[in-house]
Design a protein that fits this description.
Layout: H1 2-18, H2 41-51, E1 55-59, H3 62-76, E2 81-83, H4 86-95, E3 101-102, E4 111-114, E5 118-120, E6 125-129, H5 138-141, E7 144-150, E8 154-155, H6 158-168, E9 177-180, E10 185-186, E11 194-195, E12 202-208
Parallel strand pairs: 1-12, 2-3, 2-4, 4-7, 5-8, 7-12
Antiparallel strand pairs: 5-6, 6-9, 10-11
């Protein structure tokens, strides 16, 4: 049986080589065909992310980012915020000890805050992976999700994002890589757009002008 299967596959391969389909437009360059932009990657990300329903907040430094977060928490009346990233826990403990932070039960949280791997300017996407301290859960299960990111994490496109990860993880990419853009949405039911079905209903990005 194995020999028969192998024979059939060899015949298919041989036939494909003899009748290869030529490229329909060989004159088109293999280079990317995207229109250039005079904006910086951070500006492009802010535009694309906002156009998808995300809420973008620019910050000159960490202190300003935490101050903006405090104002947002007070304005929204949030009382249960889930954080697992050690960097963020130490930052909030130092600059905002009054924040209602917990790292035990995501299921009870109103908001989840996490870092990311990088931001993709062309699509307004936030790239996360299973290698991060919060694993897979926070960006998916939080009713409202806030990403803290830095200017040096903004890349132009998905190709650069993958190169970014390859440099960061030279021994092999994480088992899960997720690129999410804006709040979760679906129009499966009667073609009516519903937001917040399969993930957060609101997403924020706090971009800090500096390096992490």
């Amino acid at each position: 049986m194995f020999s028969t299967r192998k024979s059939i596959l060899n015949q298919i391969k041989s036939g494909l080589k003899k009748a290869a389909v030529p490229k329909p437009f060989p004159e088109i360059s293999a280079e990317p065909q995207f229109v250039g932009s005079n904006k910086s990657p951070a500006e492009n990300f802010a535009h694309e992310f906002s156009s998808l329903g995300g809420k973008f907040i620019y910050n000159a430094n960490q202190e300003e980012a935490v101050h903006q977060l405090l104002l947002l928490v007070e304005n929204q009346g949030w009382t249960n915020i889930y954080v697992q990233d050690q960097y963020l826990l130490e930052l909030f403990e130092r600059l905002a000890p009054s924040l209602p932070i917990q790292s035990e039960d995501l299921g009870e949280a109103e908001v989840g805050i996490s870092l990311c791997e990088c931001l993709v300017a062309r699509t307004g996407g936030i790239l996360t992976s299973s290698a991060q301290e919060y694993g897979r859960a926070v960006p998916v299960y939080s009713p409202i999700h806030i990403t803290f990111a830095f200017a040096n994490q903004v890349v132009a496109d998905t190709k650069q994002a993958l190169n970014f990860l390859k440099i960061k993880y030279p021994n092999g990419l994480p088992s899960m890589i997720c690129l999410a853009a804006g709040p979760s949405r679906t129009a499966d039911i009667e073609k009516t757009l519903v937001v917040g079905v399969h993930g957060p209903k609101e997403v924020f990005t706090f971009l800090i002008d500096g390096q992490n």
